[in-house]
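ARCHIVE CARD
Drawer: 12
Card no.: 0347
Subject: one protein chain, sequence and derived structure
Cross-reference: see card 0346
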Amino acid sequence: MESNQIMYDILSQNNIAGTTRRLLAAAAAAAVIALPTAASAEDHETGDDAPVFLTLDNHGDLNFNQLLGVNNKRIIAGYFGDGAVVPNNGYVLVPKNHYAPDNFTHLPAGDTASQTQAIGINDKSFPDIVGFYTDNATGFTHGFLDSNGVQTAVDDPAGLPPNVGTPVQNLLAINDFGKAAGFWTDAKGHEHGYVVQLNTAHLGSSKFTEISPQEFKSDALATQASDITDNDNVCGFWTDAAGNNHGFFGHLGHRLNSFKVTIRGATAVSTSPFGCNNEGEIVGSFTDAAGAVHGFIWSNGRFSQFDAPGSSQTAAFGVSGTFINGINDRGDIVGFYSDGTKVHGFARLAGDE
């Protein structure tokens, strides 16, 4: 159900080895949340505490980088490589240029990765990282958990054979209590979101909670669970029969409420949340009536539009405009944008309080 008002108070409803390990070790040396409303305005940032914008590209491929997750210590997960000319290579970064050039190679026995993406990272003293890898031998794409430098495949049984011939699964985010958000893809190519409580001692006993498209509308095609906070608030989106996305947000196990980005009275055609934090902020991208793609931030009861400096609506490698993919509790955001010929990773670091 679409909502244009504050819906409810959630609380009231009841390493990687080698270089990466050293990098993470060095970097590591009751929010009241309301859903978006139609009341919205642009942010205007001035003064000495204005955020700092950084374009951050790994030299492994200066043509294509995406930054996807950031924790409170400003450790960033991302990857380089468009997946065709240059394979996806997951990495971890501490701005501006402390990269861990590890392609998440400590995989389960028998698996060799042809592609990897590091997507989500939590705030444990030695952070857990989640993402996906494609097994070179089978072509199957698995979600993975990287804990203490060891990667383990994490797959929702609903998206495995015999239900799906060639599995495509992703883990997108992980909170500090071992709950991860992600999706699996069905035989028609539609995503199905889920949250999993990871049992790290026996991953086969992990508990999956499905977020079905039909929770939102009978003819909805797909869902993606993009992020989950330490308070068990989950954000993501569902896709309607016309192929447009609608954001959702709510407490896991309760009704997830839909919303669309609305700025200056104009409602987005498509809304895709990719990240949310413990402060009740939500980020993602939206498509406007002209077909342009912009980043959005939901904070302090309003939406604001964010377009990365130098971004272009001319597509590069299939990416146009600006995508915000992650936000931490400090208000730092990470994402990527097209400049018309290349795709760049970016971080916007919040000013000091």
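Annotation on reverse: Residues 10-349 form a domain with the Neuraminidase fold (CATH 2.120.10.30). The chain is about 5% helix and 40% strand.
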